Amino acid sequence: MRKLLWTTISILAVPLVAEASAQSAHWHIFTEPFVTSAHAQELGWQKVDDVLGRKPAVSGDVRRYGFPRSDLSVTLDGVTIKPALALGGWVAFKPMHGEAMVMGDLVLIESEINPVMLKMIEGGLDITAVHNHLLRASPATFYMHVGGHGDPAKMAAVIHDALAVSKTPLSMPAAAAPPPAVDLDTAQLDQIMGARGQANGGVYQFNVPRRDAVTMDGMAMTPPAPLGAAIGINFQPTGGGKAAITGDFVLTNDEVNPVIRALRSNGIDVTAVHSHMLDEQPRLFFLHFWAVDDAMRLAKGLRAALDKTAITKG
User: Fold this and answer.
1) Selecting from 3.30.200, 3.40.190, 2.120.10, 3.30.70, what CATH number does the domain 183-314 have?
2) Rounded distance, CA 229 to CA 207, Å?
3) CA distance 229 to 1
4) Residue 11 pLDDT > 80, yes or no?
5) Are the C-beta atoms of 211 and 218 separated by less than 8 Å?
6) pTM, rounded to two decimals
7) Whole-angstrom Cα distance, residue 262 to residue 273?
């Protein structure tokens, strides 16, 4: 019986490895890496790149496409906000159940919200949140969180058509001058924050994952940072060792008020508390913040808030 079973499996395996050498016909062709690779080819990511008109940043099996609002000049408390600080719209695709999941965070001005929403709804994508992240910014910016599941190229076309009714730049800009160096003691920031940051567009960014696994539709939200499920903290130098800070804490319900108290006791404004998704597990809340002050002082306040959360220690 065992011999018959192995003979049957061997016969079934032959078509799957027709292009490989005879020595490659082993049982491992049925393992998850093969399935993932096959799905990646079937999903046709080049079509998504072509529709969206840009290449993604790839982390694991997640492909994240940036749509920064470089067309906007937004100021807050005398600071001209760089796109990497708070204007970096994005969408991310992850293979799921033989198709793809998409989720994103689009940066819009008030007059763009309903036209973009209508295009998303007509295309079958979900709106999971619309809200502010900042206060007192001029012009005011709003953030539309979207989600969906299906053919990635079709969903990309919906997203492209929706963004086309806004003034979000859809063509890649000509090669720009290198961004300015981050005029902060980044080594000291890393030490205080207990994590390693990364310079991006003149902004020093931290992504701090949570210890607990986050799932959606039974799938792990990994890697968390490109899917918006990690705590994001951004420092934009303003001169003289000072910085503007913003970002979002990703929190469970019992962490919300301890983090609020830690931030407020360190002079950091809490600008929003809300959801970004609809059916994640555990239920998550996103807390946004803002301050302009000595960068190290702010880092210590942020560290105190991080200590109230279940984060992965650096």
Assistant:
1) 3.30.70
2) 9
3) 49
4) no
5) no
6) 0.84
7) 15
